[in-house]
């Protein structure tokens, strides 16, 4: 809990935090997002270009990419939730600089996950349990992101000094505001945009009738790519490792490579291991769902019938 004394003694500098804004952490997030967005785009374009007559060939060609994308998608949604949860738990020590960087990385992971959702939505619908679990994770991620936006907005409205912990926004009653029109509008638009994207993603994931399916895929992929690029640029320009922080740091730890940052890059190899196992035939993967398979996507939902299609169709 905060006290008035904790938020009135304003330090001149704050220590760096390589676990949040280190070069390895930022690069790992960027590489993962780039790979996931690239694979998502290739799968969407494949669906647009190829005809049903060649669907069997295309299914075999996309199995590995879909498995790899599924791994990165799961990784991204959990990274977003994990980062924001830890950030809120440490709000009594994190300054606005680190808090904002966590928010940008969470936005990047959200955009990457939604892009994967656009490409893999038919496959997520095979199993209603996994589909609703993903829906729950998306809601948790949205709730955390909205809380972050409120913290950031309050820090601007109250003119919180950038060397005080972000949690001080609920203690200080400062009437001095550092917020400008662009900051205010940008934060509000980001929060509202997250809610709108979540509503559209929910409709896209749960809708039984995929109307304007291809248009939604292309438009959504462009939007998610724009969000990912914007969040990445903002994070890089603000970070000590690649840009110029808006707070004076007492050391240059975020520019140095440590074990934790190298581990973040090594974690990118995990989804590749599954791909190697698929190529060697050690893991059986269900083929991607096509339009002719849509009729049975929701058959047997919430049913204990052992012959329901959702139970026998599998997941990858």
Could you give a short description of this structure?
The protein contains 10 helices and no strands.
Major pleated sheet? none
Count of helical regions: 10
Which parts are unreliable, with pLDDT below 50 for 5 consecutive residues or more?
A: 292-300, 302-316
Provide the number of structural domains.
1
Percent strand equals under 5%
Task: Compute the CA-based radius of gyration.
Answer: 22 Å
The outline comes out as globular
- Overall average residue pLDDT: 78
Helical proportion, percent range: 55-70%
According to DSSP, the number of beta strands is 0
Give the ordered list of helices and strands: HHHHHHHHHH
Distance from first to last alpha carbon? 45 Å
Specify the structural class: mainly alpha
How would you sum up this structure, described in words?
- This protein has helices spanning about 20, 25-50, 55-90, 95-125, 130-155, 180-205, 215-240, 260-265, 270-280, 310.
- It is an all-alpha fold.
- The protein has one domain (about 15-310).
- Helix 2 (about 25-50) runs antiparallel to helix 7, helix 2 runs parallel beside helix 8 (about 260-265) and helix 4 (about 95-125) packs antiparallel against helix 5 (about 130-155).
- The radius of gyration is 22 Å and the shape is globular.
- The model is unreliable at about 290-300 and about 300-315 (pLDDT under 50).
């Amino acid at each position: 809990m905060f006290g008035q004394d904790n938020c009135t003694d304003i330090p001149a500098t704050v220590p760096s935090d390589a676990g949040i804004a280190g070069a390895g952490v930022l690069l790992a997030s960027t590489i993962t997002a780039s790979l996931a967005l690239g694979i998502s785009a290739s799968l969407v374009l494949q669906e647009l270009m190829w005809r049903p007559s060649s669907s069997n060939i295309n299914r075999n060609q996309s199995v590995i990419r879909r498995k790899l994308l599924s791994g990165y998608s799961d990784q991204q949604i959990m990274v977003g939730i994990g980062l924001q949860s830890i950030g809120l738990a440490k709000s009594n020590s994190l300054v606005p600089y680190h808090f904002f960087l966590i928010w940008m990385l969470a936005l990047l992971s959200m955009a990457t996950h939604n892009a994967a959702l656009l490409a893999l939505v038919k496959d997520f619908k095979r199993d209603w349990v996994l589909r609703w679990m993903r829906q729950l994770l998306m809601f948790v991620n949205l709730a955390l992101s909205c809380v972050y936006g409120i913290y950031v907005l309050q820090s601007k409205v109250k003119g919180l000094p950038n060397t005080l912990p972000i949690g001080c926004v609920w203690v200080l009653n400062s009437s001095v505001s550092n917020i400008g029109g662009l900051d205010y509008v940008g934060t509000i638009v980001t929060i509202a945009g997250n809610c709108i994207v979540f509503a559209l993603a929910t409709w896209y994931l749960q809708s039984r009738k995929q109307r304007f399916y291809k248009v939604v895929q292309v438009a959504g992929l462009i939007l998610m790519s724009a969000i990912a690029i914007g969040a990445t640029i903002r994070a890089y320009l603000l970070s000590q490792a690649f840009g110029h922080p808006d707070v004076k740091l007492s050391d240059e730890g975020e520019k140095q490579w440590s074990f934790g940052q190298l581990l973040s890059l090594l974690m990118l190899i995990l989804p590749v291991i599954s791909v190697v196992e698929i190529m060697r035939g050690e893991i059986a993967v269900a083929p991607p769902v096509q339009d002719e398979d849509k009729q049975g996507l929701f058959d047997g939902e919430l049913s204990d019938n052992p012959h329901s299609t959702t139970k026998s169709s599998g997941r990858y």
